[in-house]
Amino acid sequence: MHMLRKRKEERSSDTESQKSDTPAHIGGTTLFGDNVEDEWFIVYLVREITREFPELAARIDDNDGEFLLIEAADFLPKWLNPENSDNRVFFYKGELHIIPLPETHGQEWELPASTPTISQALTLLSTRSEECLAAKPIRTAVYKRISGYPEKIQASFHRAHCYLPAGIVAVLRQRPSLVAAAVQAFYLRDPIDLRACRSFRTFPPDERVMTVVTFTKCLYAQLMQQKFVPDRRSGYTLPPPSHPQYKAHELGMKLAHGFEILCSKCSKVSPDSKTSVLSNPLWERFLSSLKEKNYFKGEMEGSAKYLELLHMAEDYFQHSVTKPESSVAVSPGDEILTLLQTTTFDLKEFEKEAACLPPADDDSWLEISPDDLDQMLKEATNDSHPSSNEEEQKYDLETVVESMKAFVSKVSTHEGAEMPWSSDEAHVTFDVDSFTNALDRILGAGSEELDSDDLDEEEEFDFSDEDDEDIDVENQRQAQKALPNEAAGSLKSYMKEMDCELAHTNVGKSFTIQKKGANSATATLSQNAGHDSGAEDTELTPVDLDMNLVTNLLESYSAQAGLAGPASNILQSMGVYLPKNADHVGSNEEVEE
Question: What's the chain's Rg over C-alpha atoms?
Fold first, then answer.
């Protein structure tokens, strides 16, 4: 299975200081590319290994860090973040475990407050596994991502007809996994790589046959979605697009370019490179171990069976025991050239097989309609917020209002805003007195500084008179207690004056006010107060906050014209879905008329 992307530096983070503390273990680095599903398949394997061998514990991360926690981000405890998650997330006995922080000072002796060492983590897993077991919502989110395996493995494959050179067909018969390296070589090609594809010295187009190649769906999509025209000098030509085998010819041409690029990049090591590998002292110890374990099954040294087993052991040692970083590591191009030299094939036999090939798989999954995409997004959102579905909401505008209020009432930090999971949140309230008291505590007791332009208050509280030095201390305290109330009253008066001024402008008229049967005339008068000199004394009708909120949301949603935008993104993140604007098309038609 082909994987590209996970950087080896992730494992190198285990520095020399940690090596002495890390017990004996088996580790590895996997390279994965655009197919993230390959990574989750490894997670499934790791979980099954710890289930099969209960004494083992395993951890896994990638270039994003603890991606298992990222998958369950909606359900993580507040204390868990990327800075303190190292060496805390493990699979143990087939279950996901997270080593918690100590809740009290007494627990610091048992639970590490800083990053635990591997030995500390393993000790806690074995002695306090129940306390370290991840919460059920976290485990559910991770397990849902790997559900369906191993049956889902077959669903990730795609079998397609390809018109390929016979040499590539023979190589793929021996090493089917090389198709991944070839696809990546073509997918990531550059102008220098294409120079080798002008002559095609390794895989000329003279002897091509039809065959079936098994891809992963990701690899197949990478080949199909790239438009490419071969160089005329290469000898590769394509039939007209109307040809029934056009897709097979195009796939074969692209795959052949990938194999040719791999061979052009081979290390071109000397023929005795294998001998240099086998001269390693490790090989001698490896061979002695095989003999002690009766690997050769009593075969006489030098016999055909003995040599066959010996060659198998040499190949395994080269590919698995020697470090990939070493200069003698076998590249895909070297492996392809070696297979071409050691493999014989019959062109006529390939042609006979081409006459009765099984049908190719349907690739209609490559095309996703907008409705399918919307359905996928809704399913993903419902997985995060199970309580949100269209039948329950029925597009109730009150739900929209309550959800938006709950969102606004949430306290955001530098890490971002939190989305409420349900609309059953407390209403947003604003207590002017509490706000003024808090402001007074921040600015100090001298609340006369709240507004430097308030000359009336400065005259009322004139502290410059030196003749009042005999004022009672208790009176001063009472005066200081009265200051917040007076400041609050002053602030309310300012707000009222601002409302009166804005009511006569276009800004004030743009808001919807509350409807009152008895005060309808007053409401009308307050909106048209610009023509009445006594309008300032008229009591202003309160603004209908809910109606204005819904109106602005719907206008923003309509302006998106069916595309993604702030209104739909915020509402969908809270599990609220608005219907399509069926009136939008009709209104456009009226405007055009």
Answer: 37
Q: Is the CB of residue 295 less than 8 Å from the CB of residue 225?
A: no
Residues near 3 by beta carbon (within 8 Å), at least 6 away in sequence: 30, 31, 32, 33, 35, 38, 39
- Paired with 204 in beta bridges are none
**Of 249, 245, 172, 253, nearest to 215 (Cα)?**
172
Q: What are phi and psi of 214, to 5 degrees?
A: -100, 120
**CA dihedral over 328, 329, 330, 332, signed as positive or negative:** negative
pLDDT in tens, the chain (593 residues): 333 333 333 333 343 444 456 788 888 888 887 888 889 999 999 999 999 999 999 999 888 889 999 999 889 998 888 888 888 999 999 999 999 887 766 555 567 778 888 888 898 888 888 889 999 999 999 999 999 888 888 889 999 999 999 999 999 999 999 999 999 999 999 888 888 888 888 888 888 999 999 999 999 999 998 888 888 888 888 899 899 999 999 999 999 999 999 998 875 544 445 555 566 677 888 888 888 888 888 888 888 888 888 888 888 887 765 544 444 457 888 889 888 888 888 888 898 888 899 999 999 998 888 888 888 877 776 665 555 444 444 556 666 667 667 766 665 666 666 655 543 444 445 566 666 676 666 665 544 444 444 444 444 444 444 445 455 555 655 555 555 566 667 777 887 788 777 777 776 667 777 665 544 444 443 444 444 444 444 456 676 767 777 777 777 877 877 677 787 777 776 666 666 665 554 444 443 43
User: Residue 546: which H helix or E strand, with range?
Assistant: helix 545-559
Q: What's the first-to-final CA gap in the chain, in angstroms?
A: 59
β-pairing verdict for 157-165 and 95-98: unpaired
DSSP letters along 434-497, please? HHHHHHHHHH-S-GGGG-TT-HHHHHHT----GGGTT--HHHHHHHHHHHHHHHHHHHHHHHHH
Task: State the Cα–Cα distance between residues 56 and 522, nearest whole angstrom.
Answer: 77
Residues 358 and 273: their CA atoms lie apart, in Å, by 41
As given in the structure block, the two tokens for residue 514 are 């509350």
Sign (positive or negative) of CA dihedral 455, 456, 461, 466 = positive
- Which of 214, 213, 205, 196 shows the shortest CA–CA distance to 165? 205
Is residue 100 reached through a cis peptide bond, with omega within 30 degrees of 0 on the bond before it?
A: no
Q: State the amino acid at position 395 in one-letter form.
A: Y
321: which DSSP letter?
I
- Of the candidates 331, 311, 313, the one whose C-alpha atom is nearest the C-alpha of residue 321 is 313
Write the single-letter amino acid at 215: F
For the record, the structure tokens of 328 come out as 């003698």
Q: What six digits make up the tokens of 62?
A: 């990638």
Residue with tokens 């889902």: 152
Of 468, 450, 542, the closest CA to residue 503 belongs to 542
pTM over 0.85, yes/no: no
Q: Concatenated DSSP letters for 332-359?
A: HHHHHHHHHHH----HHHHHHHHTTPPP
Helix (H, G, I), strand (E, B) or coil at 523: helix
